[in-house]
Amino acid sequence: MNYEFFIAKRIIKAKQYKSSVSATIIKIAIAAIAIGIIMMMVAIATGMGLQKTIQKKVSTFNGHIQISNFDNNNSEVSLMPLDVNQEFYPEFTDVSGIQHIQAVAIKAGIIRTEKTFEGVLAKGVGADYNWTAFEDFLTEGRFPNVSEKRENREVLLSAYMARRLELKLGDTFKTLFLKEDTSEIPNERTFEIVGIYDSGFQKFDANVMLVDIRHIQRMNKWRNGEVGHFEVFIDDFNEINEKTIEIYNSIPSNLDTQSVISKYPFIFEWISLFDVNIFLIIGIIIIVGGINMITALLVLILDRTPMIGVLKSLGSSDWSIRKIFLYNAAYLIGVGLLWGNIIGIALVWTQHTFGFLKFPNPEQYHTSIIPIHIEVWHIIALNIGTLVLCVLMLLLPSYIITKISPVKAIKFQ
Known about the structure:
This protein is α+β, with helices and mostly antiparallel strands and 413 residues long. It has helices spanning 3-13, 15-19, 23-62, 159-165, 202-205, 213-219, 240-250, 260-263, 265-303, 305-313, 318-354, 362-365, 376-395, 406-412; strands at residues 65-69, 82-83, 98-112, 117-125, 138-141, 154-158, 172-177, 187-197, 208-212, 226-227, 229-234, 255-259.
């Protein structure tokens, strides 16, 4: 053990240290570090939680990557059929990191009731559709059974549309689908609501209704083996751009790929701004915490001026004495980090488990409960970064020790 650390340890344990004039300022500095780490942890957890939640909701309705025919169709409606007999379907083996692939088709229609009507995008799904992601959205009933040999009229409707149409679970309704030749009589289908979902994402809740894909195939006069496009889900969303290119290079030349990021650029540009906000909050809090620690360090130096004079008279170098106070400051920062982590992790866990904090305007953030997501390495990096940056900020103020004269410091005692 070096003597600087030994002296710093003795100072920390001394009763005078805990009852001195500087004790109150030291406690304030520790509290500032603790509050700072709590706020930074909450900022990261809520910012990333919101990003992950929105990513998941958009991907649930669209997949991470879509494979379709080359066409000039900018709408959501499937116009050109795509043969389901592809080398990459039903299992994509040429590209690693593929979680699931499913075939779907979309057709626009109008739901008509006795009192009102609403436009709708009927998304046709089949037996390969992965309902797991929708489980979090299901509020009433069950999912449509689309795996039977015969097509059925069961649908999954959003709570938003059910309210506007004054429909409930178990009700039936008629939907009109226009043909390519608008002069012909529209196709009419009667559906039964077997499930109601609520994703909180109004862009999709106000439009999407899930039906048996065979309805879309029959109305479009497609064969059983023809679909609108494929939705691909990958293991790691952070690799979506790389996987989009890999998939494009591995599929036939007459097919195209589009990631959900390029399909909804404004949504993902918006949530990417959360990163800027997180870094800005972290930067401000570290600066404030560092300033508080500088104040505490200067008070400690003034409080221990006689000791500094004695150490200098005994031959200690300025850097050696500075290290004593830096060790002392690092200990104070560590105490603040300890309490901050205990309280911060408890708050994050409580919100993640019980979700007691909610947005006052959930439609703006596409979720009612404030979501939480934070990883262990985020907490570790946050603690190490805060400790290192605060200590570095103390290097310059500790230089004041070199200006203290041993004679005047001993007389000051």
